[in-house]
């Protein structure tokens, strides 16, 4: 028991010595860091450009190569923010630039004047490169273009779309350089793939924006797609055959006088489909020499049907004397 107690005391003392060692080590390291940071250093930092207050009637064309290399002198503490955050210099287009017919020009003298505002106190600017920055711009243009849905929809057996697909909004306002906006006539959506659909469609779809979109603004970046989906069925009605363009000096006898028209519609509209909603016509002018039959065509169909067809392929006829 005594041996065990001695052993535990020895381990405790040893651990305490180790803890004290690391404590002094960390304190020494901290003092060294503070000493280093309290000294002045000179270094060159590359700054990205943040453009503000650009006139609304123009758009500045994007150019990622526009950067400033600034050599600064300050204490180490001040340098920390440049190592741990993105380095940005703000250029105010309402006061920091001059305008020419094709470019905005920024001069480094502006940064010397506004150095305290950009970098804070106790920072000395030693040099700035390049001396000037030129920002190309174009006149802002606005254009409203239609949206085209890019989709592949497969319905479950017995189901189909009742009506048409509705996009909200169905058009997009594009704002940007005139040269870029003029090239855009429509905007497509990303591909919408739906399978085994048996209920109403309602979902957002993102727009497929052009590669030049970094210089453009769009009123929306997605649209809402909606469509009614119903159970569908087929039906058949008997429709009279009408002859047109028959010369006055010719009398025709034709048969059959009525033909079956098969239609495809939703169950809820099935009883609204009537024979009078259809019209089948044979045009005598289309008759070719030696042809002994007329071709029936569906020239009118019910607004409630999605598709319809005439089952009879030929209408036989004879010319009466």
How many individual β-strands?
Answer: 23
What is the CA-CA span between the terminal residues?
138 Å
Number of domains: 3
Radius of gyration computed on alpha carbons: 40 Å
Uncertain residue segments: none
| Main sheet makeup | 7 strands, mixed
Instruction: Quickly give the CATH architecture of the largest domain.
Output: Beta Complex
How many helices does DSSP assign? 5
Order of helices and strands: HEEEHEEEHHEEEEEHEEEEEEEEEEEE
**Beta-strand percentage range:** over 45%
CATH class of the largest domain: Mainly Beta
Overall structural class, as computed from helix and strand content, comes to alpha+beta
Q: Overall mean pLDDT score?
A: 85
Characterize the structure shown:
The protein is 18% helix and 50% strand. It has helices at 2-37, 76-84, 109-113, 115-119, 178-181, and strands at 40-52, 58-60, 67-75, 88-92, 97-99, 103-107, 124-129, 132-148, 151-155, 159-168, 171-177, 187-188, 192-197, 201-206, 217-218, 222-244, 251-255, 258-266, 279-283, 293-294, 296-300, 305-310, 315-320. Strands 2, 5, 6, 8, 11, 12 and 15 form a seven-stranded mixed sheet that branches. Strands 10, 14, 16, 18, 19, 21 and 22 form a seven-stranded mixed sheet that branches. It is α+β, with helices and mostly antiparallel strands and 321 residues long. It folds into three domains: 40-130, RNA Polymerase Alpha Subunit, Chain A, domain 2, CATH 2.170.120; 140-231, Beta Complex (RNA Polymerase Alpha Subunit, Chain A, domain 2); 232-320, RNA Polymerase Alpha Subunit, Chain A, domain 2 (Beta Complex). Strand 5 and strand 6 form a beta hairpin. The model has no long low-confidence stretch (mean pLDDT 85).
């Amino acid at each position: 028991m005594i041996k065990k107690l001695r052993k535990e005391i020895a381990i405790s003392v040893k651990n305490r010595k180790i803890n004290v060692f690391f404590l002094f080590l960390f304190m020494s390291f901290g003092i060294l860091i503070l000493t280093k940071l309290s000294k002045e250093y000179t270094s060159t930092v590359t700054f990205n450009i943040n453009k503000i207050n650009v006139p609304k009637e123009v758009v500045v064309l994007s150019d990622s190569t526009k950067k400033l290399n600034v050599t600064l002198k300050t204490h180490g503490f001040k340098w920390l923010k440049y190592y741990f955050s993105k380095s940005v210099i703000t250029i105010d287009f309402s006061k920091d630039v001059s305008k020419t017919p094709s470019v905005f020009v920024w001069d480094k003298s502006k940064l010397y004047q506004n150095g305290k505002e950009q970098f804070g106190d106790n920072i000395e600017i030693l040099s700035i490169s390049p001396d000037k920055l030129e920002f190309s711009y174009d006149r802002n243009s606005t254009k409203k273009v239609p949206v085209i849905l890019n989709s592949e929809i497969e319905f479950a057996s017995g189901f189909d779309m009742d009506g048409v697909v509705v996009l909200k909004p169905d058009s997009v306002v594009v704002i940007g350089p005139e040269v870029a906006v003029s090239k855009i006539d429509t905007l497509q959506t990303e591909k919408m793939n739906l399978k085994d659909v048996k209920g109403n469609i309602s979902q957002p779809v993102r727009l497929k924006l052009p590669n030049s979109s970094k210089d453009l603004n769009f009123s929306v970046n997605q649209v809402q797609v909606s469509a009614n989906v119903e159970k569908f069925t087929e039906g058949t009605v008997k429709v009279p055959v009408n002859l047109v363009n028959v010369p006055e000096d010719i009398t025709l006898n034709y048969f059959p006088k009525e033909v079956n028209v098969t239609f495809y519609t939703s169950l809820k509209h099935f009883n609204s489909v009537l024979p009078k909603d259809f019209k089948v016509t044979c045009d005598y002018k289309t008759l070719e020499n030696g042809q002994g039959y007329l071709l029936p065509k569906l020239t009118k169909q019910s607004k409630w049907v999605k598709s319809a067809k005439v089952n009879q392929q030929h209408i036989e006829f004879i010319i009466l004397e």
